[in-house]
Amino acid sequence: MTDITAQVDVLPGLDPRAPLLHVEDLNVEFRTRDGVARAVNGVNLWLNPGETLAVLGESGCGKSVTAQAIMGILDTPPAHVTGGRVLYRGVDLLQLPESERRKVRANRIAMIFQDALSALNPVYTVGFQLGELFRVHRGTSRREAKRRAAELLDQVRIPDARRRVDDYPHEFSGGMRQRVMIAMALALDPEVLIADEPTTALDVTVQAQIMNLLAELQRERNMGLMLITHDMGVVADVADRIAVMYAGKVVEEAPVYDIYAHPAHAYTKALLESIPRLDLKGRPLNVIRGLPPALTDIPSGCAFHPRCAYAREICRLEPPPAYQIAPQRVTSCHFVREVLGV
Amino acid sequence: MFRYIVRRLLQMVLTFFGATFVVYALMFANIDDPFQALVGDRPLTDTQRAALNAQYHLDDGFLTQYWHYVTGLLTGDFGRSLTGRSIGEMLAQAWPVTIRLALLAIVIASVIAVGAGVLAGLRRGGAFDTVTLVLTLIVLAMPIVVLAPLAQLVFGIQLGWFPPTATRDANLYQLLLPALVLGTLVVATELRVTRASVAENLRADYVRTARAKGLAPKRVVGVHVLRNSLIPVITLIGVDIGVLMSGAVVTEGVFNIPGVGFNLLRGIRTEDGPLVVGFVSVLVIVFLVINLIVDLLYAALDPRIRYE
Amino acid sequence: MSDPNAVAVAEAPSTAPRSLAGDAWLDLRTRKIFWIAAVLVVVVLLMAVWPSLFTSADPRDCLLARKNAGAGGGALFGYDFQGCDVYAKTVYGARDSILVGVTATLIAGVIGLVVGLVAGYFGRWVDALLSRFVDIVLAVPFILAAIVLARRLSSNPESNGIVAVIVTLGVLGWTTAARVMRSAVISAKNQDYVAAARMLGASPARLMLRHILPNAISPFIVVLTVLLGINIAGEATLSYLGVGLKGDAISWGLAIADAGPYARTAAAPLVWPSVFLAATVLAFIMLGDAIRDAFDPKLR
């Protein structure tokens, strides 16, 4: 499958030595009748080949919007990318004309969605939907496209793939459908895979199978995987690094072991403390009080301050700067020392 | 798919008996003098009475009457009108022009509805959408009894763009104005359903997937959105056939087209009961058959339905 | 979070407690189309109740000498082929149209409400039976069934046919209302709060009236509003076909039917009843549209 990359038109300014994916100060807002919702407010992220970055946060924190802004599939209106850069191998995708950007999707950066049943078109066979990628991006014939579709289904371990290419999405089980989604994302051998809550809609046992499959395929192909989730359990198993998001910002970023051992942001710490633990059975759970803020009305200063146990006057007044506290560790908390307990 | 067809056929058999029973009951149930009811205000001679009895068995019990009526329908014997003509023959003469008229109306309506509906749905809230919505609203509010005479007056008589009447072997041009009028009856609902369906499907998750696959907007809409959006429109066409049949009665009357509706209208005006019952029964059967075909088409378009 | 567009809506701060009806009214007040429709409806209702407010002429005062005379001499739209004042006839035509429309819609509404509620609430064989029945009624195209029934009901030569038309439209027009009510009830019934109320021991009657009906009523009202317009058009169609109002009744449908053959020489007697009829139907359809949009929070 390596020859495929050569067939793709070369993007102007593409630098193979530049970082794989680098999101700089990304801003996205939704302009609705009820006001402007600032969904993403200056997100910084980076991703290397073969690496898994988990983007963690409650629903509404802007993690899915960030992913869709990277893909360029937000609905405009109401969504508007108001600032920042999305650099793929040194090329700012936000500056590309739409026709060029389309070639990046699925070819270079692909995406898996949460609910595979609604993410697949109900009236076409999975073979058609998979083969469509080869037909549109590679100009292959219908027959050849179908053959490759069957090959892909086989690669994601769908039994009897050759026969099942002619089945419709609703004829697959939830886990199998998510495998189809994965096959679709991997069809054109992308370098970056964004998985938006790929296992949330699945049973726990199936979740593990899907995550293992993803990890395995990632290793085989040395892809950068951006895993969007709210499930700390999933993160601990597969991620190399974690970016914690709150109210449209990355508040803390760190290698996975560091973050579990020494969270450096009050929000991360509160999140970890809110996980039920067997050794603390019988004690009341530390839940985070209050609700995530409305994106139309994000609190001043540090957006987390109304819910924060460490909050003081400064948190309300000034947004915390990004502190580099160790190599690969960044946190935006005024009281990082107190949180770390040093 | 096979099970779906079988089930749908069984349903149709049930609906056939139900619907014909409804028509028959509406006409004859619980009535003092069914013979008089058939002929309206006209005087009724004994020979006519005997002829009607031979046709409708009105002296028998109600269910027996219904049985004779249904077997007549199923064997193609629709009886005779009060003027003594065979209803089957009248139908055979009247059908061709009505079918051409209805087909023309459906084609005109569908092309406009799907074309404009997709455009309006893609740009919801835009200028084209707003104008289309207002237009459909006005069209929806135009009963056929307003539309047909006014269209004839304005375009047929005053402007003279179209012939104001049509004959049995009318050509396309002669049928165009009546077909436009008839098509107007269904175009607004079809357009609105297309628009709503396109707008809804555009927000569907699979459209996001299609864009994430790097497909061009043309393909996203033309391949992914369109097929899903047409499913509710197709089902609507089944209902529309009924509207067209009702509309054809008025339209053919106004434009003097000697089709099924024209004959039916004449039957009503001359109080020819057998003719009315015969024609309505046949129209109902045609309606049922077309709806069956539409449902099968629907199953072909939407794979989910086949496995229900 | 799967739908980025939902972000803003889902996170909207909750302010004072609001009701769906209250919200709908707030929304309705800002819609131009609602006010146009409301004004039209009020004018037509006034015309129906109090026609002498609009004209001092008597619609039955016809003189053949004035046959097809043009406007003037107090007759705003001129005279028809029988020499009747077209404007006066058109104004007085509103009464029977509205009377038929409202009563037929009420009958259809009651039948639709009961059938839909019972089918939706009890489900199983009750639902199967009633739904098949609805299918059968729907299998007969509306006007065709109406022709047969209205012809049958109006066989009494003395009456002017108004009762026959009302019964015909009412008895045949309830199917959509029943279907909408049924599906609204089914979706309301499956809500968790209804299950909760049932577990707390609420009786079927209480469940239906207090918990299900309020949530199913708005689509039902929308259907009835539109049905009102359809019934007014239906009366005109039946009258036009000769199975509706007749005798000395004054109706837009009758006027259109009568004026048709003379349209070449005198267009006004055809045009004005048509315009009034279309405007009235339009008003009710617009009203239904506006109410539906206001009640549909998804569109907001």
TrEMBL record, chain A:
Transmembrane segments annotated in the record for this chain: none
Which Pfam families did the record assign? ABC_tran, oligo_HPY
Q: How does it sit in the membrane?
A: Peripheral membrane protein
Q: Which UniProt keywords apply?
A: ATP-binding, Cell membrane, Membrane, Nucleotide-binding, Transport
Top-rank taxon of the source lineage equals: Bacteria
Which stretches make up the ABC transporter domain? 21-272
Q: Quote the InterPro entries the UniProt record gives.
A: AAA+_ATPase, ABC_Ni/Peptide_Import, ABC_transporter-like_ATP-bd, ABC_transporter-like_CS, Oligopep_ABC_C, P-loop_NTPase
The record's listing under CDD domains reads: ABC_NikE_OppD_transporters (cd03257)
Localization: Cell membrane
GO molecular function list: ATP binding
Family the entry assigns = Belongs to the ABC transporter superfamily.
Q: What name appears for this protein in its UniProt entry?
A: ABC transporter ATP-binding protein
Q: What phylogenetic lineage does the species belong to?
A: Bacteria, Bacillati, Actinomycetota, Actinomycetes, Micromonosporales
Automatic annotation (TrEMBL), chain B:
Instruction: Tell me where on the tree of life, at the top rank, the source sits.
Output: Bacteria
- Which controlled-vocabulary keywords does the entry list? Cell membrane, Membrane, Transmembrane, Transmembrane helix, Transport
Transmembrane segments annotated in the record for this chain:
12-31, 99-122, 134-155, 175-193, 233-255, 275-301
What InterPro entries does the entry give?
BPD_transp_1_N (IPR045621), MetI-like (IPR000515), MetI-like_sf (IPR035906)
**Bilayer disposition of the protein:** Multi-pass membrane protein
Q: Provide the family line.
A: Belongs to the binding-protein-dependent transport system permease family.
Q: What protein name applies here?
A: ABC transporter permease
This protein's species is: Paractinoplanes pyxinae
Q: Output the lineage of the source organism.
A: Bacteria, Bacillati, Actinomycetota, Actinomycetes, Micromonosporales
UniProtKB/TrEMBL annotation, chain C:
From what superkingdom does this record's organism come?
Bacteria
Q: How does it sit in the membrane?
A: Multi-pass membrane protein
What InterPro entries does its record include? BP-dependent_transpt_permease (IPR050366), MetI-like (IPR000515), MetI-like_sf (IPR035906)
This protein's major location comes to: membrane
Note the SUPFAM superfamilies from the entry: MetI-like (SSF161098)
Among Pfam families, the record links this protein to: BPD_transp_1
Alphabetical keyword list: Cell membrane, Membrane, Transmembrane, Transmembrane helix, Transport
- Provide the protein's localization: Cell membrane
Transmembrane stretches in the record are: 33-53, 98-122, 129-150, 162-181, 212-233, 270-291
Cell membrane in keyword set: yes
- The residues the entry assigns to the signal sequence are none
The question of whether Membrane is a record keyword is answered with yes
- Domain named ABC transmembrane type-1 is located at 94-288
The UniProt family comment states: Belongs to the binding-protein-dependent transport system permease family.
Name the record gives this protein: ABC transporter permease
Q: Which organism is it from?
A: Paractinoplanes pyxinae
